[in-house]
Design a protein that fits this description.
Layout: H1 8-36, H2 38-41, H3 51-73, H4 80-86
Length: 87
Amino acid sequence: MPTPDDRPDARNARWGLILFFIYLLFYGGFVYLNAFRSDLMAKPSLGGMNLATAYGLALIVVAIVLALVYMLLCKPAETESTSQDAK
């Protein structure tokens, strides 16, 4: 008998929370730097952009990458009946 943690929705929720906290760390770093190290955020970094702009763009990219990772992790497993029906 499967345990409640083996259900796909529980597994998906667990992955969602893990990825959310990973993104929260990235975002917390952005907020920290803006609030307490604004001098550092004003310095030029990639391609002449200041660090604040580069970090902001990186946050968008990280969000998209984590969404794709979540999509791959939560993809339903292919069953035998599904693979036989496709043939």
